[in-house]
Amino acid sequence: IKSLTLGCLICCILLLSGFVISLDEREKSFLKIEDSYNSEVNFEGVNNSCFLQFDGEWNKTFGGGYWDHGWCVQQTSDGGYIIVGDKSIDEFNSVAWIIKTGAYGEKIWEKFFDASATYVEEVHDGGYIVTGDCYLDPFDSDANIWLIRLDGSGSKVWERIFGGHRGSDVGYCVHQTSDGGYIIAGYTTSYSNTSDAYLVKTDRYGNMIWNKTFSSGCLAGSAFYVEETSDGGFVLTGWNAEGLWVIRTNSRGDLLWEKSFGESMDMGNYVHETSDGGFIVVGSTGLGPGSKNAWLIKLDSNGNMLWNRTFGGGASDGARGGCVTSDGGYVLVGMTESYKWYGDFDVWVIKTDSDGNREWGRILGLPGKAGQGGHCIQQTSDGGYIIVGDTYSRAPLPGDQGESDIWLVKIIPDNSPPGKPVVTGPATGRINRRYTINFSSVDPEGDDVYYFVVIWGLGTSGGWIGPYTSGETVSYSFIPPAEGTFDITVKAIDSHGWDSLMSDPLHVTFPKPYWLNLLPPFIQRILLYKT
Question: For the whole model, what pTM was predicted?
Answer without folding.
Answer: 0.83
